[in-house]
Amino acid sequence: MSLLARPAVPPDRAPRAHRLITLVPRSEWAYRPRIVATGFVIVTQVFLYVLLWRALYRESGDTVVGLDMSQAITYSVLATLMGTGRVVLEGASQETAQSKIRDGSVVFWFVRPLAARRYCAWRGLGESLYATLWLLGGLTVGVLCSLVALPPSWPAAAVTVVSYALGQVVFHQIGLLVDLTSFWTITSFGVNRLAAFAQLLLSGGLIPLWLFPDWFRSTAGHLPFAATINVPVSLYTGRIPVADSAPYLAEQALWCVLLAVLGRLMWRRAARRLLVLGG
């Protein structure tokens, strides 16, 4: 059977595709040590960031590049919650093209009634929702512990939600594109390492982009990585005023479209090129 020819979806089974949303949460619940490990990593990073920013502001004064200590800590806590939980989650998942190609089960992605691209999209939606639960839980704890400040206004909170949703789409598309390179490489380890480094540095997940030189910030700020963390967190902290948010949201939406088109092209070529390491 050609990988491009898929069986028709039975009418009574089509609505069941939405059940893939629960695939990731149920898998994580089945392996509870992963939840503990993710929580430990996030708590440790937040603790170290709080110590770091308090020490820096004790030496430098009230503000650094226009950010006060409360904004800096809030930025780092939210960036950690948005980035670390998602990365740890993706790293623990075995539903990747690389792992499936190694054991040969990737062929089932292309012979199921549900298209492989839609299967990954539903699963990615579940990953985003699960990561959002970590974000909301950590945000609640951070506010109660006075580590995270509330957004400056309700409009700022609303535009942050929109920006966060767009950022999650970009996050998924970047991860998908990196994973799809497995169809053209013997191993995607190097690509994954490079993408993880770029995501951590260029998204503002490690250090706020506002602290970098102007030339670096102006370049990184227009890359898709910044759309995942820097933009929504900057809107939340008030670093980007609500009145100036339209161009940032438009750029996020543009990256969503461009990455989706590129992903669609890669899916089409991947269906015609399949290398199974197991023979």
Would you spell out the secondary-structure blueprint of this structure?
Layout: H1 23-30, H2 32-60, E1 63-64, E2 67-68, H3 69-92, H4 97-103, H5 107-111, H6 116-144, H7 154-180, H8 189-202, H9 214-220, H10 224-228, H11 230-237, H12 245-272
Antiparallel strand pairs: 1-2
Helix pairs in contact: 2-3, 3-6, 3-11, 6-7, 7-11, 7-12
Structure description:
This protein has one domain. Helices cover 68% and strands 1% of the residues. It contains twelve helices and two strands, in the order ααββαααααααααα. It has helices spanning 23-30, 32-60, 69-92, 97-103, 107-111, 116-144, 154-180, 189-202, 214-220, 224-228, 230-237, 245-272; strands at 63-64, 67-68. Strand 1 and strand 2 (67-68) form a beta hairpin. The longest helix is centred in the first third of the chain and has 29 residues, at 32-60. It starts with 22 loop residues before the first helix and ends in a 7-residue tail after the last helix. The relative contact order is 0.14. Residues 1-5 have low confidence and may be disordered.
